[in-house]
Amino acid sequence: MFRKGEEILSIYGYSRVSTSNQDYKTQIQKLEQAGAEKIFSEKYTGTKKEGRKELEELLSIVKTGDKVLVTKIDRLARSIVDLNSIISSLNNLGVTITFLDNALTFEPNKSDSMQTLMMNMLGSFAQFERDLIVTRTQEGKQWHRANNKNYREGRPKRVLNDKYKHALELMETNSMREVERKTGISLSTLKRIKKQAKEEQLLNEK
């Protein structure tokens, strides 16, 4: 904790491991040695900040003038897009973030040519990453269209489990409304599985 005028500001640390058998000891030790007073630690394997409760709590309590310490960039984010988003969020709140092992610091409202260059590079890499994802997705769709005649975009087909197969049998002698009442399956779902069953030749056309 440090003072800026009469205002008391805080130094926070953030540590993350991606597997259950890893621990935070080394990270926490470095963060404490660098002055972190409160450390948020979590085990999370994803690449996005959503669902990371400790990170979300940290972002909710920091205020202008506070500092956040992280040992390495990949401990905060594994996606350039997400990294850029988190750094921007902290800087917009007036918070400074430092990556100890990378010797990088991003300060809010600082007209520093190197920091500006780094943020622009992160932004460019973020856009490149988004474009790459879109390109790979489109290429994947094109490949499936060319090599799989049954390929359809959009919602994947439901697995026709025993409940759905029973509903299909009931459809042969009952109206859709009656089948809905007897099975509890919605009309929209019944229509979809009927169409799917016809496509898969599990139900003869009436």
TrEMBL record:
Catalytic-site annotation from UniProt: S18
* Domain annotation Resolvase/invertase-type recombinase catalytic: ranges: 10-148
InterPro entries given in the database record? Recombinase_CS, Resolv_N, Resolvase-like_N_sf, SSR_resolvase
Q: Name one Pfam family in it.
A: Resolvase
Q: Which UniProt keywords apply?
A: DNA integration, DNA recombination, DNA-binding, Plasmid
GO terms for biological process, alphabetical: DNA integration
Q: Does the keyword DNA-binding apply?
A: yes
**CDD domains associated with the record:** SR_ResInv
Keyword Plastid annotated:
no
Q: Specify the superkingdom.
A: Bacteria
Q: Which GO terms describe its molecular function?
A: DNA binding; DNA strand exchange activity
Cited PANTHER family: DNA-INVERTASE FROM LAMBDOID PROPHAGE, RESOLVASE HOMOLOG YNEB
- Family to which the UniProt record says this protein belongs: Belongs to the site-specific recombinase resolvase family.
What is this protein's name?
PcfY
What's the source species for this entry?
Enterococcus faecium (Streptococcus faecium)
